[in-house]
Amino acid sequence: MIISILLRNFKTYRGINFIPLTNEEKFCGILGNNGIGKTSILEALDCYFNSRDWNLHVSIRRSGLTTIAASITPIFLIKKEKIHTDHRDLCEKISTVIWNITDADVAAANKPYLKDFVDQREKIILNYSEDEYYLLPIGNEYPNANSFGVFNCKKLGESVIDGFTNNRMNAEELKLLDDLKYHLKEIYEYIYIPKDISTVELTQLERKEIQALMGESLHQILESRVTQTQIREINRNLNDFISTLSTELVDYSFRTPTERQQNLKKQDIYNLIIQAYFNPRRLHKKEGEQWLDIENLSSGEKQKAIIDVAHNLIKNHHSNSENLILAVDEPESSLHMSACFEHFIKMFEISNACNQFFFTTHWYGFLPIIDNGSVISITKGTAKHDFDYLSLANYRELVKQQIRESRGSLPHDIRLKSMNDFIQSIISSVLDEEPFNWILCEGSSEKIYFEGYFEDLKLSHKLRIIPVGGAGEIKRIYQNLSVAIEEFKREIKGKIYFLIDTDSELLSFETSNTNKIAVKRMVNSENDTKLVNINSNPKSPVTEVEDVLNGLAFYNTLLKFKQDYAEELDFIEAGETIDQIPSYYALDLRVTERDKLSVFFDTDNNKFKFANSYIDEIKENTYDTPNWITEIRTFITSE
After folding, report:
1. Which residues face 399 on adjacent strands?
2. DSSP assignment of 556-581, as one string?
3. Burial of 508 per CB tally in 10 Å (0-12, 13-18, 19+)
4. Phi and psi at residue 278, in whole multiples of 5°?
5. In the 3-class helix/strand/coil scheme, how is 260-309 assigned residue by residue?
6. Which residue, 117, 335, 365, 505, could crosslink 425 as a Cys pair with Cβ 3.0–4.6 Å?
7. DSSP state of 521
8. Which helix (H) or strand (E) holds 601?
9. Alpha-carbon distance values, 330 to 187, 196, 213, 376, 386 (Å)
10. C-alpha–C-alpha distance, residues 450 and 542, integer Å
11. Rounded-to-integer distance, Cα 248 and Cα 632, Å
12. Burial of 567 (0-12, 13-18, 19+ CB in 10 A)
């Protein structure tokens, strides 16, 4: 996959720009105002992979290339086994440096960009190993040279060139990348669908984009259906006809200029079939008993057709799309808001079958919908672009954090736009004939537990589980949503379940529970966990998700962590008899022991590690399902 890209003086990007795209996710959104540079990223990749014409920054067009350079340098994270053995030695040398390079290794002017890369690399290392993956910044420099971007330094030069002594490699020395770069472009197939492309033109079977989505060219298709034996038979019959005609004409014959009489070649037949058989065919959409030409559909329907066709070809026809990179510019263009929801779900499904799916958008409603994705928000500072990265797995929590940390204006955009689109996406989804169902909880660890317990409902009941970053956000979302709920209450078909913890300082707000909407607080009481209305009793003790899990599974999971956290978990001993009641009661800890357990959960991201380990434990062994989980399941699945 492409984890980031360095753009230098390309289109809207002046100077050097390091743009993070993903840390591990395949579904990669690019947000920002019109003209900010979203499309430029997709066009740059098209230029890199498909030889699209360079769109140089105006500063180059004014001053010329003698003083200002332009380059496109994708940074690839690729499994070593995907690289041909002929190129692995060079890849190993490059990758070893890139996995370990620091800003001290590069020129002073490049240090800020190297620091951004190192920040991203620290997150990449959490999920990818240097032993299994290459990190390769292999780029193009205008007009046809190679580039390492900001990574071009003495350390890298010494690694790939014997006796290298300069501070950076020159264009001649960088020619050593020629074959490797060509090989990378063979491995990946990049399809770019611009916003303004003609749907009729794009969906013709002769288009390389459609053939790439099918995973085979028309010539390959014809090769398996029009055999060499059939072509020889055609030539034989035609030659028989010419011979018969020559006999009838006595002293005359129809011949080619050369002595050897030319027969139809395989490619001649294929080209004729493509021209006469495939070319006249246009995409049609079935409406009732009628077939409508794609040209006669509305703009929104045409936009929808592009994603539908891509989705179905990759799902039903393409035999192996794991190296396909699909990029779509503003896929929601001309679509009604009610259609955007399902549109983005299909895009997400496409991404699961591909290597990556890039898209630009102005519709923020996908943020809470998608379980696993990333977004990069682009804003313009006083002298440069700023880039803020968000993971969709817990984007609302990150937004709250980045209100304080963002270098750009991401919080302003996200807070204003995402709430409105978020509410619209939920309402739209629960009004559908095949509705989605939602659980909105406080944090990402709750999401892990719920996804483990409700894994089957994600498919059977289109359940989406969204961590929103605290009880305050639950309140805010419910109050925004309740206005729309009241307006559409008779038409709602899906379920929405809001769930908060019991905190020491309870959050109070007015709610209205129905058979479609539930707003509950979990609290431990009388050796069990209750789901109560927000303002109902009991209002203590403090109850978090770690207090309401199956006690025996909780205990067995803690034992897995004791070796690494002996001091924090010194009160846990193997061989104890533990009941399958809520963990708060099952362990029966003293205050000091609870304090130690809190320290454990607040250390080294252990809340998330423990949650994943707990889910593995209940999947590998048989445990009772907590009553409160069963209660939520009943709510979601009941008619």
Report:
1. none
2. HHHHHHTTTTTTTTTT--TT----SS
3. exposed
4. -85, -40
5. CCCCCCHHHHHHHHHHHHHCCCCCEEEECCEEEEHHHCCHHHHHHHHHHH
6. 365
7. E
8. helix 591-601
9. 26, 10, 19, 14, 21
10. 20
11. 89
12. exposed
The span from the CA of 461 to the CA of 472, in Å, is 27
Rounded Cα distance, 341 and 166, in Å: 54
Q: Per DSSP, what are the bridge partners of residue 360?
A: 30, 329
Cα 190 from Cα 41, distance rounded (Å): 13
Residue 11 backbone phi and psi in degrees, to 5: 50, -110
Residue 421 token pair: 């689109």
Look at residue 150 and give its three-state secondary structure.
helix
Distances (CA, A) of 350 to 87, 313, 318: 30, 10, 11
| Structure-token match 């991201």, residue found | 605
* Confidence (pLDDT) at 457: 96
Which two structure tokens, joined as six digits, stand for 460?
A: 């059977």
Q: How far is CA 104 from CA 100, 136, 154, 589, in A?
A: 11, 19, 11, 50
Q: DSSP of 130-141, one letter per residue?
A: TTTEEEEE-EEE
Query: Count of CB atoms within 10 A of residue 212's CB?
Result: 20
Q: How confident is the model at residue 338, as a pLDDT?
A: 66
| The residue count for the chain | 639
Is residue 508 within 8 Å of 535, Cβ to Cβ?
Answer: yes
Three-state SS letters, 308-334: HHHHHHHHHCCCCCCCEEEEEECCCCC
Joined tokens for residue 561:
């962590």
How far, in Å, CA of 127 to CA of 461, rounded? 30
| CA–CA distance, 359 with 404 (Å, rounded to integer) | 27
Sequence-ordered strand ranges (E) for 490-606: 496-500, 517-525, 528-533
Residue 50 contacts residue 190 (beta carbons within 8 Å):
yes
User: How many angstroms separate the Cα of 370 from the Cα of each of 40, 124, 176?
Assistant: 24, 21, 41
Contact 205, 221 (CB under 8 A): no
3-class DSSP assignment, residue 109: helix
Please, which residues bridge with residue 437 across strands? 463
CA distances from 460 to 366, 436, 524, 550, 605 (A): 21, 10, 30, 25, 32
In 317-438, which residue ranges form alpha helices assigned H by DSSP? 337-353, 395-405, 410-431
The span from the CA of 570 to the CA of 564, in Å, is: 11
Say how far apart CA 305 and CA 113 lie, in whole Å: 40
How many Å from the N-terminal Cα to the C-terminal Cα in the chain? 43
Residue 502 has a pLDDT of: 96
Averaged over successive runs of 10 residues, the pLDDT of the chain (639 residues) comes to 97 95 95 92 97 89 70 98 97 97 94 95 94 98 94 96 94 96 96 91 91 91 92 94 92 84 89 92 90 90 90 89 95 80 87 95 81 87 83 66 54 66 84 89 92 94 87 90 84 94 92 92 96 94 96 97 93 94 95 94 92 96 97 95
Tokens 């937004």 belong to: 399
Residue 574 burial class via C-beta count within 10 angstroms: exposed 0-12, middle 13-18, buried 19 and up: exposed
Rounded Cα gap, residues 535 and 96, in angstroms: 58
* Pairwise CA distance, residues 16 & 383, whole Å: 12
Q: What is the pLDDT of residue 118?
A: 96
